[in-house]
Specification:
- The chain is α/β, with parallel strands linked by helices and about 400 residues long.
- The chain folds into three domains: about 80 residues, Udp-n-acetylmuramoylalanyl-d-glutamate--2,6- Diaminopimelate Ligase, Chain: A, domain 1 (3-Layer(aba) Sandwich); about 200 residues, UDP-N-acetylmuramoyl-L-alanine:D-glutamate ligase (3-Layer(aba) Sandwich), CATH 3.40.1190.10; about 110 residues, Mur ligase, C-terminal domain (Protein-Tyrosine Phosphatase, Chain A, Alpha-Beta Complex), CATH 3.90.190.
- The protein is about 40% helix and about 15% strand.
- It contains 16 helices and 15 strands.
- The strands form three sheets. Strands 6-7-5-8-9-10 form a six-stranded parallel β-sheet, with helices on both faces. It has a five-stranded mixed β-sheet with strand order 11-12-15-13-14, sandwiched between helices. It has a four-stranded parallel β-sheet with strand order 1-2-3-4.
- Helix 5 links the parallel strand 6 and strand 7.
- Helix 4 packs across helix 11.
């Protein structure tokens, strides 16, 4: 183990000096890079070690290798080694680390956060949705040596996973955007989901003169104040003697936001503001950063056709909570207009919760149900409803690929 730690320290120093990079994909590896062989569900990086060496890898971290090479570092678990490397590099660069999780709104909050904090700091952040046990260390080891703030998004599929990611990133500030029903089919109850989300404080550390901070929505702030023992398993398991500060946020409309901006989006913005204020930013800087935020494709962006119909592309993902929030936002922002929802599948959600939210939506706007249907048929039905004054919300889980509806019409 001592030898492994020494090697990881050397790699970290080379990363900081810009002399190497880390890759888990031999298709993108460059000469001098470190290759980490990871066994996945469909591919095993160990099958490509020779290709990595041929491409010029300076070192290969792997669980096994049949050949002989001084460039191979054998470890018990490649993913664990990757995370340990990330932690070693994180400690070397020593940025302020902000970790974000939640049942919904993680990516929106992360994007807002990086725009706002960039008003004052050099910020590195999670790209795309690299928020799992491989994506988080990838985000960390790819940060430049002059990074001042690292913003890390953390996803989860079960208990123990966010603890693993938090222990890897060692955040100074942790945030839970909300606790909803996403993944309830895996965890069984909202209480278990809450327990899983609270794992984000597992790795919280006190650095840069900052007291460890947990930022949560108002409902869970009240709950944690009333039941502080909920945090004990996460803050005491390593015998820490510092106090974890907990701050809540609400969904009041304090800032101007681009794109579809209902209560959930304003909640995300207010959460970002709490962190920004803790890091010394002014209200002017916070609004300037939020004004630079623009929802990406699939996350509430606006598009008009030649007839004047407005399409709101919220197709990236969905669960019952996020669907209800998006529908409420549309109804609040577009009171007089004709409103239509193109509804895709709500994966990772209990059927009874889906039925409940769909009934709620049907009481508020017209629904074109795309679940289990050909996209061409959905598009044809939608065309009959477009009269130049329609507001069309397109929302469904990633598997539905509802962006194809927009591609056909725009």
């Amino acid at each position: 183990m001592t030898h492994v730690l020494e090697q990881l320290a050397i790699i970290s120093a080379r990363l900081a000096a810009g002399l190497t990079a880390v890759s888990t994909d031999t298709r993108t590896i460059k000469s001098g890079d470190v290759f980490i062989a990871i066994k996945g569900a469909n591919h095993d990086g160990h099958d490509h070690i020779d290709a990595a060496l041929k491409a010029g890898a300076s070192l290969v971290i792997a669980e096994r290798y049949a050949g002989g090479s001084a460039k191979i570092l054998i470890v018990e678990n490649s993913i664990a080694a990757y995370q340990l490397l990330a932690k070693t590099y994180r400690r070397l660069i020593n940025p302020i680390v902000v970790a974000i999780t939640g049942s919904s709104g993680k990516t929106t909050t992360k994007e807002m956060m990086r725009h706002v904090l960039s008003q004052r700091y050099r910020v590195h952040y999670t790209s795309a949705n690299l928020n799992n046990e491989i994506g988080v260390p990838q985000t960390i080891v790819s940060m430049p040596a002059d990074t001042q703030v690292l913003v890390v998004e953390m996803g989860m599929r079960g208990l123990g996973q966010i603890q693993e990611l938090s222990d890897c990133a060692e955040p100074n500030i942790s945030m839970i955007t909300n606790v909803g029903s996403a993944h309830i089919e895996l965890l069984g109850s909202v209480e278990n989901i809450r327990k899983a989300k609270l794992e984000i404080v597992s790795g919280v550390v006190a650095r840069h003169g900052l007291s460890p901070l947990l930022v949560v929505d108002g409902v869970h702030y009240t709950k944690l104040v009333a039941e502080p023992d909920l945090l004990k398993p996460h803050v005491e398991h390593k015998g820490r003697d510092w106090k974890l500060n907990v701050i809540g946020f609400d969904d009041a409309r304090r800032y101007k936001i681009n794109g579809l901006a209902g209560a959930a989006i304003h909640s995300d913005a207010n959460a970002v503001a709490v962190v920004a204020q803790a890091l010394g930013l002014t209200e002017v800087e916070i609004q300037a950063g939020l004004s630079q935020y623009s929802p990406g494709r699939g996350r509430g962006s606006y598009h008009y056709d030649s007839a004047g119909n407005l399409f709101i592309d919220d197709s990236y993902n969905a669960n019952p909570d996020s669907l209800r929030a998006s529908v409420d936002a549309v109804c609040e922002q577009f009171v007089e207009e004709r409103k239509i929802l193109v509804l895709g599948e709500l994966k990772e959600s209990l059927p009874e919760l889906v039925d409940e939210v769909v009934a709620y939506v049907r009481s508020r706007m017209m629904v074109i149900d795309a679940r289990g249907r050909e996209i061409a048929d959905v598009v044809a039905e939608l065309r009959t409803q477009l009269s130049g004054d329609a507001v069309v919300l397109v929302k469904g889980s990633r598997a539905s690929q509802l962006e194809r509806v927009l591609d056909a019409l725009l």
